[in-house]
Amino acid sequence: LRQLPARVPWAPRFAPDGWTVAYGGFRADRAPSELWTTDLRTGAPRAHTADGADANDPQWRPDGRALAYSAATSDGKRVHVRPLDGGAPRRLGDD
């Protein structure tokens, strides 16, 4: 059993590998919400957003290589996809 590093983590979703969990949550006393993953074997957390876009509600791509999540934009909440290999996120519907 591991404690997640974010304050008030919500919407946890397990990766297809069963060892990584994605969730939205606040860092210490900082808002808005950010998108996080934690490796449950090591307990190592990783923040995937820090842009103030209130990111949360993650969903894994079936192969575990990307996360879809909601984030605030100037025209409301929108769905973004962030590859976990370090690529830039993209907003769905902008293609």
What structural keywords apply?
95 residues; mainly beta; four-stranded antiparallel sheet; 0% helix; globular
Description:
- The protein is mainly β.
- Helix content is 0%, strand content 55%.
- The chain starts with 6 loop residues before the first strand and ends with a strand.
> What is the typical, i.e. mean, pLDDT?
85
Strand content: over 45%
**Sheet bearing the most strands, described?**
4 strands, antiparallel
Q: Which percent bin holds the helix content?
A: under 10%
Shape: globular
Poorly predicted regions: none
Order of helices and strands: EEEEEEEE
Oligomer: single chain
First CA to last CA: what distance?
Answer: 41 Å
* Overall radius of gyration: 13 Å
Protein structure class: mainly beta
Give me the number of helical elements: 0
Secondary structure: number of strands: 8
Task: Give the strand order, joined by hyphens, for the main sheet.
Answer: 1-2-3-4
